[in-house]
Design goal:
The strands form three sheets. This protein has a six-stranded antiparallel beta barrel. The model is unreliable at about 1-20 (pLDDT under 50). The protein has two domains: about 25-110, Beta Barrel (Elongation Factor Tu (Ef-tu), domain 3); about 120-180, SH3 type barrels (Roll), CATH 2.30.30. With about 190 residues, it is mainly β. The chain has helices at about 90-95, 120; strands at about 5-10, 15-20, 25-35, 40-45, 60, 65-75, 80-85, 100-105, 125-130, 135-140, 150-155, 155-160, 170, 175-180. The longest helix is centred in the middle third of the chain and has 5 residues, at about 90-95. It contains two helices and 14 strands; from the N terminus they run βββββββαβαββββββ.
Amino acid sequence: MPDRRLVASARNGYLKAVSSSPPQRYLAIARVGSAHGVSGEVSCQLLTDFPERFSRTKRVFLGEEHQPIEIQHSRLNGNRLLLRFSGVENRTEAIRLVGRTVYIPESEAVRLPAGSYFWHQVIGMAVRTADGQDLGNVVNILETGSNDVYVVQGDRGEVLIPATKEVVKSIEVDDGIMTVELIEGLL
């Protein structure tokens, strides 16, 4: 339970509860695409690189309001995920979930090996060269066959930075800064 304290509002003289803990952050792991069958199961698009997580995840949060819901059953069906939620008993109830995103709290994210980062940690980072030139901020990540490419938008326009050890020298998640060593042809 979050740490709560009471504070007085000077403007209108009433008390309200204010949380002194940071707000919960969520990660999208799937999106409900359609009802599957007649017993309340839904077919989902995977938004995680770790689909095996569903074998041990028992509670998720649905939609932008992050409504908690229990997972009764999960299984992979090709590149789709089939989920059965508690309280969703038939096709009509499952159809109501179509388009909703499935989230987990950020604190339950899979632990990545050192030097690996989630996209949400990289997008928005300031990008600087090793000699201190500001290139802009990461606005998108492109998946390619061999490595990801960071799309950086700044005063120079769009710069594509390959996510390789030769180019990306450091990523400081806490500071929100990526340091790169530009190779010929990048600018």
